[in-house]
Amino acid sequence: MTDTLIDVRTAVTVADLTLEEKASLTSGGSFWKTKAIERAGIPAVMVTDGPHGLRKQREGGDHLGLGDSVPATCFPPAAGIGSSWDADLIERVGEALGTETAIEDVAVLLGPGINIKRSPLCGRNFEYLSEDPIVSGVLGAAIVRGIQSKGVGTSLKHFAANNQEHDRMRASSEVDERPLREIYLRGFQRVVEDAQPWTVMCSYNRINGVYASEDPWLLTQVLRDEWGFEGLVVSDWGAVNERVTGLAAGMDLEMPTSNGTTDAQIVAAVQDGSLDESVVDVAAGRVLDLVRKAEAGAGSITGPLDVDAHHALAREAAGRSIVLLRNEGGILPLAASSSVAVIGAFAQSPRFQGAGSSMINPTRLDNALDEIVAVAGSDKVGYAQGFTISAKDTADAADLRAAAVELAAAQDVAVVFLGLPAAAESEGYDREHIDLPAVQLELLDAVLAVNPNTVVVLSNGSVVALPFADRVPAILEGWLLGQAGGAATADVLYGAVNPSAKLTETIPLRLQDTAAFLDFGGSEGRVRYGEGLFVGYRWFDARELEVAYPFGHGLSYTSFAYGEAAASVTPAGDIEVRVTVTNTGDRDGREVVQVYTSLPGSAVQRAVRELKTFASVALAAGESREVVLTVRREDLAYWNVRAQEWVVEGGDYTIAVAASSRDLRSTVIVAVEGDAVATPLSRESSLAEVFAHPVAGPIVQGAMAQMMSTMDGAASIMPEGVDMMAMMGSFPIGRIGMIAGPDFSAEQIDQLIAMANA
Ligand code: BGC
Q: Is 438 exposed, middle or buried (0-12, 13-18, 19+ CB in 10 A)?
């Protein structure tokens, strides 16, 4: 895990180091390593990408996935594995990732990425888990726990509001406080509080005008003071703008190396008095802590890597990532005795991961065609390429299509593999549309015309439009499945694995229907998050828009029945939800049980319903089980902008136990006691707010009543039924003198406010 030439003295502290040495620790020594200080016996430690496998490059590598890296197991990227909604499975994959990281002497695996999928267009959505913060947070914490259980660290990224690739190194994400807290930061908060990642990676972008890498609010106030983060903040590669400003804000380690330039800036700032040396001590101390943690874990896991065992886990994870979107007439699973036309180049050349810094050099690579042949036998399986994926492939489109149609017409079933070419979505740029290539859609239509028993298998890192959804009896959304995706696809097609994955992002009918359609990408360096809280399903539900497939949707080869849900508030204030789920079919399976809450009549803007907790439950055929789920009280809270704190609003919450965001199976109401909100009164407070205040309210109400009684003449010209209080409720108390005259002097109002706030 460290440069072995250097003798480690773990007892070294910042007090033993010169200013220059401390400053030197706060930036990288090379592309993938921290700096060593030989004099003090401090070794360099290595960090590498991530996230769904280990990408350990040769020294002097690049971060764009251009160079080669040591072979490692390529597990399904986040878009795939997130669809399992299974924290236990994901933690096991995390453990395997941690093992591979440790074997290769790497201290930190640079992941997971948990940014919210704000728009299907984001080029890097394949690296992210969901459009929902609870899914991202719960599953992100599971990955961190798994990896870190092996004595190596993680880097939770990209902190924060980094939801597009376009102009990613400069653009300012302009987000209101509530969506920032409730949607974009909530997942990060969950992972930090539940799993304490060793490091958090700050993103390239600005947030409301301030670079994430130099934002004291983000990196210190929120991350450390509020959430209790104990680790180190590392910059995304090249995210540093002003190094000294960043250091003071809480950005501890700049990566990659600055070749000493920024270290010198830090030393100069201390020397000219513009930076307190204690700031350097803190950051250098955190780098030392990281080195110590790495040393503590070093050598505990050694190779060789059990390639077969990890490939088998990758296959299990891939099988759990495939979403059965549709299965009319039970066309799936296929009978091994059916003859099958396997069509589409992805069946033979799988697209199994996304482009950019996360590209893994897999230990092996399955393809679906070979695996289908292995199950059904070569006499039952024919293959036609159908279309070209790569522009370099000059085969004639008409010839490819004709051969595929001929094959499809002759077989019982056609399984058509469609997907996005690798270049369609990547780190560094966004998509411009969500359509599959026209040549593939035309091929599918031609196949359907000769064989209605057609199954579509999709390979894409983020959602694609499915204009054929009503015409094709079965659709498997395969996302990107990692190195064992081919075998896993055959497992699901033939029923060795019963699909149990569900969508962590809505599949829209049209790009134009999506929440960020108008603002995504931004202009002149600013990206307005105009949809506010209404991201993903929150938007489609609020606007009552039809979707192709809703958030949380996914079918199984068996069926599940839900009993009546019950809910109660625990002594700790959480909501415990109980529901009996029954596997009513004749196959073993898993159901992802989802719990959504709503608060009708809320005093603040809210989504129609919001996911709060979920569980992936294995049920044997015919088995019934009571599932107990806990909604944490803090997850009911909204960010109260006036009070600048999380507040649980009191009221009757509707708890919906659901099979998807649009398939609510049982609802129950539970009364929740609200938090007392200490919103201080000010001259800006409205009369309604003052009336509701326990101290000031009665005083002002009394005074107002008296005043009204002396204004009979004026009141009498009001139409009957007009509610004077409703009319005046929004009037700021500081301006009441305009109406009340000398009865409410400015001094009296200030006294009242002071008394109320005391
Ligand atoms: C990416 C990070 C990655 C880093 C190192 C950056 O361009 O945004 O996700 O960890 O490079 O490769």
A: exposed
